[in-house]
Amino acid sequence: MDTQRELIEVQGLKKHFPVGGGLLKRANSFIHAVDGVDFTIPRGSSLGLVGESGCGKTTTGKLLSRLYEPTEGHILVNDETLGAVDLAELKGRQLKTFRRRVQMIFQDPYESLNPRRTIYDTVVEPLAVQHVGDPMERETRVAELLELVGLTPATSFMFRFPHELSGGQRQRVAIARALVIDPAFIVADEPTSMLDVSIRIGVMELMQDLAARFEVSYLYITHDLAVARYMCQEIAVMYLGKIVEQAETEELLANPLHPYTQALISAVPIPDPAMSRESIEIKGGVAQPIDPPHRCRFYDRCPIADTICHDQDHPPLEDKGNGHRVACYKV
Amino acid sequence: MMNGPALSVYNLTMHYGTRQGEVSAVDGVSFDLARGQSLGIVGESGCGKTSIAFSLMRLLPDNARIKDGYILINGRDIVAMDYDELLKVRWRRIAMVFQAAMNALNPVHKVGQQIIEAMDLHLGVMTTEESRERVAGLFDLVGLDPALMDRYPHEFSGGMRQRAVIAMALCCNPEIIIADEPTTALDVIVQDRILKRIRTLQIELNMAMIYISHDIAVIAEVSDRIAVMYAGRMAELADAMDVFKHPLHPYTYALLSAFPSIKGERRALMTLPGEPPDLLNPPDGCRFHPRCPYASDRCRAEQPPFEDLGNDHFVACWHPLAGTPSPSRPRQAAQGVF
């Protein structure tokens, strides 16, 4: 791993959830929610994880923040305070220290804030849990963060409750809470999809601005390619637990190579009636990856599938030049 | 009579009574919908777009009151109708595709049976063969396998349920269809298929359609005309191309500039300061004035009229943006101050 640049390197990450089973009966099939995912995120950069519902993007995010135990694989973090460690193997006290460095922002600001706690209580909690500073210092820090995310004056927001705030303001509180202990890495799971257009851009700009200022890296999970275009340097497209294509954002949008990426991009409506677009039709819908057969995951829906796609295992993610990686036998 | 607009709404004003006071959800909204035309209503949450839809169907909750205005369908006012008359119009002349397809279907009845029930209620009872044949035809129309009509809603995927709900809205051959965010919960590839199907059906069956969404990209794809709502009022109404190429209302301009696209130049997105107003206490004058870069004293005091500035381009603004379609009108405000 390039110790200077890469902050996070994920290798062969897997998460399988048992289906059925119970106290006395072993589960004999598994949902392969994340099934061998590799990527790196450079320091201060953001990677967009894009895909349809059920493709495993949220599970990947939760694995990276260790809200889920990985079934297999490594998450190598290169951090100045922690040194180079494998997140997947951290336990106990080490894991708690690590949580200072990785934070998460969730989709729904109406659900992710405790309605019975004031904004101050919510934002100060990471500091209290990690025993950072004394109460006075913590209060100063919280006030500073609230000002930073645009909730000014901080004193008038600190002791309000979530129901007194609008959706955009709540999401700003969530961002303040994520940033309050100075993390190196943030997993943002659809942070703007619940917000209205006129509010959304403000939150997106805030996240970018803070990322640049504090050198925070993001894993930005979204179903919306247009939002990913504005938030991320690189985009990875997921399909049934696998990354099928990954490239620099403009390269991916202008020159998609995988048939699934092509279909996905062609289906995005364009906010301009003067522009026409040609949809690439693919068959069927997204299945559940329960004990998937050994062939390309996209085989059943692929318009260009061939015998090799059926007979061989899922294709590896290969670099086609300029860091544009695709998992397809036909490209 | 048959040559007039399919739907004519004039000065529709609807309030919700709440414990905190009256919420002025829809305020003085007027528009015409021509036969076979599709009108997209776009706006942010709480701007009143769904309230308009429910007013048109007279499906309002108990605390809602239509305070003023009329809604003419074929020259007859829905607001003044008694319940029996209303039943003859609802679903047969004007039908609705609801927002949450998950909740619009009854989970304990077969999907086909639910559509048959709607037909029996509105068109009179038919024989089993007749009605099953009709449902099969409807399923075919919306792109569902007719064999699926004896399945239950939970056996359908999100996209299939949305198709079934569309089939149900079409079952009585309505002249007007209202689609309220029909694709919002769906993935983009499924959304694309449903949008295409809706647009094709609307053109083939020559229905008038009102398409409601917060997503201006979706609206751009399905609408002939576009209405932009803000805080219970209509800000702008014009042909789709005019709204996108020559927006006159500063809010429309801001909305268009805030929307990211995957095509074309990666232009900078603009932020609109502030938040939509609380409709318990809407601001005086133009409701957009607290967030508007062009706001003047007049905007703060007087409500701008909703006027046609030529070319069927309606706008409610004291300082419409330059690039006005009618050349006779003097150019007023300057460009890009956001």
Question: What are the main properties of this structure?
Answer:
A: 331 residues, alpha/beta, Rossmann fold, 2 domains, eight-stranded mixed sheet, 31% helix, 23% strand, globular, B: alpha/beta, 22% strand
Helix/strand structural class of chain B: alpha/beta
Helix and strand content put the structural class of chain A at: alpha/beta
Biggest sheet descriptor of chain A: 8 strands, mixed
H/E series of chain B: EEEHEEHEHHHHEHEHEEHHHEE
The name of the CATH superfamily of the largest domain in chain B reads P-loop containing nucleotide triphosphate hydrolases
Q: What kind of sheet is the major sheet of chain B?
A: 8 strands, mixed
Total discrete domains of chain A: 2
In total, the number of strands of chain A is 12
Shape of chain B: globular
CATH level-4 homologous superfamily of the largest domain in chain A? P-loop containing nucleotide triphosphate hydrolases
What strand order characterises the main sheet of chain A?
A: 6-7-8-3-9-10-12-11
Percent range of helical residues of chain A:
25-40%
By CATH, the architecture of the largest domain in chain A is named: 3-Layer(aba) Sandwich
Summarize the structure.
The complex is a heterodimer of chains A (331) and B (338). In chain A, 31% of the residues lie in helices and 23% in strands.
Describe what you observe in this structure.
The complex is a heterodimer of chains A (331) and B (338). With 331 residues, chain A is α/β, with parallel strands linked by helices. Chain A has 2 domains: 6-21 and 29-101 and 183-279, 3-Layer(aba) Sandwich (Rossmann fold), CATH 3.40.50; 116-179, no CATH class. Chain A has 11 helices and 12 strands. The radius of gyration of chain A is 21 Å and the shape is globular. In chain B, α4 packs across α5 (128-142), α5 packs across α6 and α6 (158-170) runs parallel beside α7 (188-204). Chain B is of the alpha/beta class. Mean pLDDT of chain B is 88; it is low at 324-338. An 8-stranded mixed β-sheet of chain B has the order 6-7-8-3-9-10-12-11, with helices on both faces. Chain B has a 4-stranded antiparallel β-sheet with strand order 2-1-4-5, covered by helices on one side. The radius of gyration of chain B is 21 Å and the shape is globular. Chain B has 2 domains: 7-223, 3-Layer(aba) Sandwich (Rossmann fold), CATH 3.40.50; 246-305 and 318-338, no CATH class. Chain B starts with 6 loop residues before the first strand and ends in a 23-residue tail after the last strand. Chain B has 11 helices and 12 strands. At the A-B interface, α7, α8 and α10 of A face α7, α8, α9 and α10 of B.
